[in-house]
Amino acid sequence: MRWGRGAVLADHPGQRLVQASWAGTAVFVATAIPATLGVEALRLAAAVVALILFGLGIVVFLGAYGVAIVRSRTDAMGIGGLFFLAGSAPKLVQRHMMGSLLIQVLVGLITAATRPFTAIAFGVLVAMFGLGLAGLWGAKFGKFESRYQQ
Q1: Residue 106, number of CB atoms within 10 A of its CB
Q2: Has residue 6 got a pLDDT over 60?
Q3: Are the CB atoms for 61 and 82 separated by under 8 Å?
Q4: Are 138 and 80 contacting, i.e. CB atoms less than 8 angstroms apart?
Q5: How far apart are CA 63 and CA 92, in angstroms?
Q6: What are the DSSP calls for the chain, one per residue?
Q7: Among 44, 84, 87, 89, which residue's CB has the most CB atoms within a 10 Å radius?
Q8: Average confidence score pLDDT of the chain
Q9: Alpha-carbon span 32 to 3, nearest angstrom
């Protein structure tokens, strides 16, 4: 995969996490938007996809937190670097992870605002998936300063 100015996502660790984030976002968008626009056949699917992504997001988020706890004994980690990859990830990785998360948030909010009293509103929970994957990337591969200055 090449993304702007010759940068290659495969050159960075955690490529599978980035791909998983985009795959989840694609499935969410592909079910939520048509369901919001009135495609009856996708209403249940949109709710199920949103709840599955939310559940996976919780599990991944807790896993990321566990990895971060262990790693924080030697590395000075902050929330911005861990979950939002600020200063801890290459710009290309950060753009992909935060771009995917942003789409999840926007589609979730827009679809829920459009159909607030339906199962489609579960879409607001999907952002937990993107946040959890970004946190796992940061916990496993992020660059942080050592707690012990040499």
Answers
A1: 12
A2: no
A3: no
A4: no
A5: 23
A6: -B-STT-BGGGSTTHHHHHHHHHHHHHHHHHHHHHHTT-GGGHHHHHHHHHHHHHHHHHHHHHHHHHHHHHTTTEE--HHHHHS-TTTS-HHHHHHHHHHHHHHHHHHHHHHHHSTTSGGGGGGGTHHHHHHHHHHHHHHH---EESS--
A7: 89
A8: 93
A9: 27
List pLDDT tens digits, range 45-95.
999 999 999 999 999 999 999 999 999 999 999 999 999 999 999 999 999
- Cα–Cα distance measured from residue 52 to residue 48, given in angstroms and rounded to the nearest whole number: 6
Q: Which residue has the tokens 């209403």?
A: 43
Rounded mean pLDDT, 106-120: 95
Q: Which residues of 51-63 are buried (b: 16+ CB within 10 A; e: fewer)?
A: eebbebbeebbee
Assigned token pair, 94: 């950060």
pTM confidence score = 0.91
